[in-house]
TrEMBL record:
The lineage of its organism: Bacteria, Pseudomonadati, Pseudomonadota, Gammaproteobacteria, Alteromonadales. Residues 92-101 have a biased composition (Gly residues). Residues 70-89 have a biased composition (Basic and acidic residues). This is UPF0229 protein EXU30_18955. Belongs to the UPF0229 family. HAMAP family: UPF0229. PANTHER family: UPF0229 PROTEIN YEAH. InterPro entries: UPF0229 (IPR006698). Residues 55-112 are annotated as: Disordered. It comes from Shewanella maritima.
């Protein structure tokens, strides 16, 4: 077996690079663990890091060894089954007495799975990868800021993957010239003196010996100058630049009526916390308006939206009316990208659902970039679901999704805000 050891010079932050390579290599398993963790956590712990378990068979290193093919001649003492020239079948894989890395054995020995802890930032980055606000367009004012990575010159510290070979060699050449130019000039003078003495009949042998020693010493000093040193290394530097795009507002409408039991409210809160983390992490200066409603709707702050215990009957149109009023007063569609996300159990006064459809059809959907509605229920859908579904046939900026249990939260969230391909 051959082992390859990377002894290249590395910066003090090399563990960060190795960590990112490991995450990239096992991203599929890590992302699955991250998505599973969303549904298992409480509301207050949804943004924390996660402990990932990866089977040892998936992190084994590749090895080089001699294969089983080829023509071989062997002597098997005590053989009474084969004669010279007989062909022996190739051994079947897995039938030997190898030292595998199974999870358990008949002797009680085994190897634990590899446990990998990811940080809060890594957790959120994997959680919201490939997500975006749909249909975002530039408006007259530029306040919403995204970040774009760009080249920012060179730096003396970095990771091996970012080494700039041309710049490093140029720096190495400049250093070697600076350190050896004087010695090379002196060496040339000594060589010329030695040549003149050698060409002169009866030259002084002691002087010749002294010049030869000085020349040898100078050559030795010049040869000691390293071809490349850590001082010479130059790394490509990358930085993040704020890229103004557009300003946007997200309206979050949540049903807190009596029909929404505690489990349903918990699912709705998890969905909105995911949405809030996604918006605040991905976009800068994006405004979020929180609206809670039962028979009446009111605008609340972030804390009251997630933790208030208020309850009552259900009139969904009250939230839509309040959203439209706020949008008209503070967020004109000519200057703002308007988004809305509504969560409900679908329970509503039967004569109010047509009114909701009318408000959406005439006032809200013509002004918003994207409207998402999730219905959290295990019961059959009611009139509100039918009203929203009918709007999907008329407008392409509304999405309707169904959540039955906590395991559906993250898949539905990804479906609603999946990054659009060009």
């Amino acid at each position: 077996m051959a082992n390859f050891i990377d002894r290249r010079l590395n910066a003090k932050g090399k563990s960060t690079v190795n960590r990112q390579r490991f995450i990239e290599r096992h991203k599929k398993q890590i992302k699955k663990a991250v998505s599973d963790a969303v549904t298992k956590r409480g509301v207050t712990d949804i943004d924390k890091g996660e402990q990932i378990t990866i089977p040892t068979r998936d992190i084994s290193e590749p090895t080089f060894h001699q294969g089983k093919g080829g023509i071989r001649e062997r002597v098997h003492p005590g053989n009474d089954k084969f004669n010279r020239g007989d062909q022996i079948e190739r051994p079947q894989g897995g039938g030997g007495q190898g030292s595998g890395q199974g999870d358990a054995s008949n002797t009680g020995e085994g190897q634990d799975d590899f446990v990998f802890q990811i940080s809060n930032d890594e957790y959120l980055e994997l959680l919201f990868e490939d997500l975006e606000l749909p249909n975002l367009q530039k408006t007259q004012l530029s306040k919403l800021v995204e970040y774009q990575t760009y080249r920012a010159g060179f730096t003396n510290d970095g990771v091996p993957a970012n080494i700039n070979i041309v710049r490093s060699l140029r720096s190495s050449l400049a250093r070697r010239i600076a350190m050896t130019a004087g010695k090379k000039k002196q060496l040339a003078q000594l060589k010329q003196q030695l040549q003149e003495l050698l060409e002169t009949p009866g030259g002084n042998a002691d002087t010749i010996k002294r010049l030869e020693d000085e020349i040898a010493l100078l050559k030795k000093q010049i040869d000691k100058v390293p071809f490349i040193d850590t001082f010479d290394l130059r790394f490509n530097n990358y930085a993040k630049r704020e890229v103004p795009t557009s300003q946007a507002v997200m309206f979050c409408l949540m049903d807190v009526s009596g029909s929404m039991d505690q489990a349903t409210k918990e699912i709705a809160k998890r969905f909105y916390i995911l949405l809030y983390l996604f918006l605040t992490r991905t976009y800068k200066n994006l405004e979020v308006v929180f609206i809670r409603h039962h028979t009446q709707a009111k605008e609340v702050d972030e804390h009251e939206f997630f933790y208030s215990q208020e309850t009552g009957g259900t009139i969904v149109s009250s939230a839509l009316k309040l959203m439209h009023e706020i949008q008209q007063k503070r967020y004109p569609e000519s200057q703002w990208n308007i988004y809305a996300a509504q969560a409900s159990d679908g329970d509503n006064w039967s004569d109010d659902s047509p009114h909701c459809k009318e408000l959406l059809e005439k006032h809200i959907l013509p002004t918003v970039r994207y409207y998402s509605y999730i219905e959290i229920t295990k019961r059959p859908h009611q009139t509100l679901w039918a009203a929203y579904q009918s709007l999907q046939e008329q407008f392409n900026n509304i999405a309707v999704q169904h959540i039955r249990e906590a395991d559906d939260i993250y898949p539905v969230f990804k479906a609603l805000f999946k990054k659009q391909t060009a």
